[in-house]
Design a protein that fits this description.
The chain has 441 residues and is of the alpha+beta class. The protein is built from twelve helices and 21 strands. Strand 2 and strand 3 form a beta hairpin. Helix 5 crosses helix 6. It is globular and about 60 Å long.
């Protein structure tokens, strides 16, 4: 059954609110610590507290400077009655909302003496982490998005954008921790509400700006936003980055069988306004049809080297799938049929990306209905280590099962084995597990 996660951003979103909500949903704190520890950087201590926000109980994620220490994990509350809206300001650090990214030369001119972290240093830390290959790629991509936005705002080259020591740690914790948590959650579909960005002004390093702050506004392009009644910054740059990275579409709560409700608290406790991010987690109804849009165009005059990056950017824009088919076109030219499958609300974004990234001068589209098998990932133990098995079912009956390729490739590389041999081990372990289940039945 497809797992759905709904980000209910009625009080905005920040990095620590996301981590608090994931912990409230059951993410093991020790596992989060292990993921952060695998970065091999001094990140201090992380913990989780139970707090109240406008009378709603929530989990508050806390990161503090100092030596890593053991903190009792937060209890799991399946139906989290939780919530506060956390310091909507820039995550949990500087209370005046100073943003983490800064141009190195400007920072030096201001007399600041913080160590800076370049993108290459951050990338190296992520590469040595315990995240999956796809998780590492996502985390690196998120940092580059954040840096590109700041570079554009300050009109400087990307290599002159750095992270302050404290800000770098907070951002690394938020981004890497969220990637770890979302992989643990195993969502097949992530949907987000419109984002309440707050109102009023926010103090940034370069002055006072209207809400949403410049970086936040840039990161929220294409997402539905509105100004609520709270005069404060409710969406931080990292919060905007996380939601726009993971949400495949924005809109009303989708139809699902609700399993868990989790609340992640922000720093402030607003009277009469729960300062929380709410996650609603459940399974899609089996056998139901869903709407998609199919966009197509033929191209016969484009450098073939551009098709690889095009696919990546279409996926980043919200495409569910992209494929290319050779086509024989007019004037006897060989060409390529580009087909993109996407949620209906991403149609315009996909069309804009096709026009911007290719030489096509027209895109056609049509809405369709589709049915999908329910899917989940189960783990089997093999001589090469733990391998995920993607299982496809209908009405609870398993119809297909295949090893996760990235898991097999990683295990093969670590042990000097052929990938096909690891795949065979995984399938044998899966079949043995099924046989054992039948015997017990």
């Amino acid at each position: 059954m497809a797992r759905i996660v709904y980000f209910d951003c009625f009080s905005g979103v920040s990095g620590d609110m996301v981590l608090g909500a994931l912990l409230d949903a059951g993410l093991p704190l020790d596992g989060l610590r292990a993921a952060l520890g695998s970065l091999a950087i001094e990140y201090g201590m992380v913990s989780a507290d139970r707090v109240q926000r406008a009378g709603v109980a929530a989990t508050k994620f806390v990161a503090t400077e100092g030596q890593p220490d053991a903190v009792a994990p937060v209890p799991h509350h399946q139906h989290g009655s939780h919530g506060g809206r956390g310091a909507p300001h820039h995550e949990r650090h500087e209370p005046d909302g100073v943003h983490t990214f800064a141009v190195a030369s400007e920072d030096a001119a201001a007399g600041h003496r913080h160590h800076h972290h370049s993108l290459s240093e951050i990338t190296a830390a992520i590469e040595r982490s315990s995240l999956s290959r796809s998780g590492k790629d996502r985390a690196v991509r998120m940092f580059y998005r954040l840096a590109e936005v700041e570079a554009a705002i300050h009109d400087v080259p990307l290599d002159r954008v750095h992270l302050h020591e404290v800000g770098a740690l907070d951002s690394i914790i938020d981004i890497v921790g969220t990637v770890h948590g979302m992989e643990w959650l195993g969502a097949d579909d992530v949907v987000a509400s419109a984002l309440n960005v707050g109102s009023g002004t926010v103090r940034c390093e370069h002055g006072t700006f209207p809400v949403p702050a410049p970086a936040t506004a840039s990161l929220l392009k294409g997402a539905p936003i509105y100004a609520g009644s709270v005069a404060a910054e409710l969406v931080t740059p990292t919060g905007a980055l996380i939601v726009t990275e993971y949400a495949r579409r924005f809109g009303a709560l989708p139809t699902m069988r609700l399993e868990r409700v989790a609340y992640g608290a922000g720093d402030r406790d607003e009277k009469g306004h729960p300062n929380v991010l709410r996650l609603l987690i459940g399974d899609a109804a089996s056998g139901g049809a869903e709407s998609i849009v199919v966009l197509e165009c033929e191209i016969d005059d484009m450098n073939p080297q551009l098709f690889g990056p095009l696919m990546d950017r279409l996926i980043a824009a919200g495409a569910l799938d992209v494929f290319y088919v050779p086509a024989h076109m007019k004037k006897n030219r060989p060409g390529t049929l580009v087909t993109v499958i996407a949620p209906p609300d991403r149609r315009q974004a996909i069309a804009d990306r096709l026009f911007a990234e290719t030489t096509t001068i027209g895109v056609r589209y049509q809405e369709m209905a589709r049915e999908r098998l329910d899917r989940e990932v189960r783990t089997v133990s093999t001589p090469a280590g733990a391998i995920g098995i993607k299982v496809a079912m209908r009405d609870g009956r398993v119809l297909n099962a295949s090893p996760e390729f990235e898991d097999c490739a990683r295990a093969a590389a670590e042990r000097g084995l052929a990938i096909k041999d690891v795949q065979a081990m995984a399938m044998k372990a899966w079949l043995d597990m099924l046989e054992g289940t039948r015997d017990k039945g």
